[in-house]
Amino acid sequence: MKIIKLIPLLTAVLLVASCKDAAPDNAKQTPSTSVETQDQSKGQASVTDNVSDPNALQVAKSLDDFTTLVTAIEAAELENALVNAGPLTVFAPLNTAFDKLPAGTVSSLLTPENKDKLAFILKNHVAPANYPMAQLEKEAKKGRKLYMASGEYLTVAQKDDGIYVGGTKIIKTVQVSNGWIHVVDDVIVPVEE
Questions:
Q1: CA 67, CA 62: separation in Å to the nearest integer?
Q2: Residue 108 located in a structural domain
Q3: What is d(CA 123, CA 156) in angstroms, rounded to the nearest whole number?
Q4: Is residue 119 part of a domain?
Q5: Is the pTM of this model over 0.90?
Q6: CB atoms within 10 A of CB 176
Q7: C-alpha angle with apex 184: 112 to 44, nearest 5 degrees?
Q8: Beta strands in 44-167 (DSSP E)
């Protein structure tokens, strides 16, 4: 007798479940976010979409003034570090900054055998923290140093003509989705001890 009472209940459950899966032909579909994965083996840096604000790497790749920096980032295989959620602050050297290095330095650093040295130098340009210009000014007034992803510390100083980090002047600042890019015209080479 109890089984007979359960049959209408089971029929109702199955009917409701099947209705949820079926959508009428005239039902509006919710637009999906367009995400395109270029190469999953390359990690987070290879994911692009058309709805997110650009991150530090995407901004650098979009500007001709940073082609040497982007080439160096790719040679050191640090792309994924620059697209993580952050916050991070990148002190991004212009192409002209790399041109100031002694002849042959950049081409030597881009070779596979110097990948670790190049990565160390590039990490010396990234602070794993949120440093907008106002915060850098506060740090300079307090005489603090910035901890960099290389494990080194850089002095931040305020001079009459602006803020300097690691001895180089910040020329321009751009906010990105995962932090800040401060444009500099010198490569901040870590001091070897």
A1: 9
A2: yes
A3: 17
A4: yes
A5: no
A6: 22
A7: 50
A8: 47-49, 88-93, 126-127, 145-147, 153-159, 162-165
Question: What is the reported pLDDT for 123?
Answer: 95
Helix/strand number for the chain, H first, E second: 7, 9
The DSSP secondary structure of 15-80, one letter per residue, reads: HHHHHHH---TTPPPPPPP-EEES-GGGGGGGEEESSSPP-HHHHHHH-GGGHHHHHHHHHTT-GG
Q: Which domain holds residue 101?
A: 53-184
Query: pLDDT class for 84, splitting at 50, 70, 90?
Result: confident
* CATH assignment of the domain containing 111: 2.30.180.10
How long is the chain? 193
Does residue 60 form part of some domain? Answer: yes
List, for residues 1-46, the tens digit of each pLDDT value: 454 444 444 444 344 444 444 444 444 444 444 444 444 445 444 4
pLDDT of residue 85: 79
What does the pLDDT look like over 45-74, one tens digit per residue? Answer: 444 555 568 888 999 999 999 999 999 999
Please name the residue that has the structure tokens 């321009």: 172
Which pair of structure tokens corresponds to residue 17?
């479940």
Place of tokens 């395109």: 36
In the chain, the number of structural domains is 1
Residue 93 in domain: yes
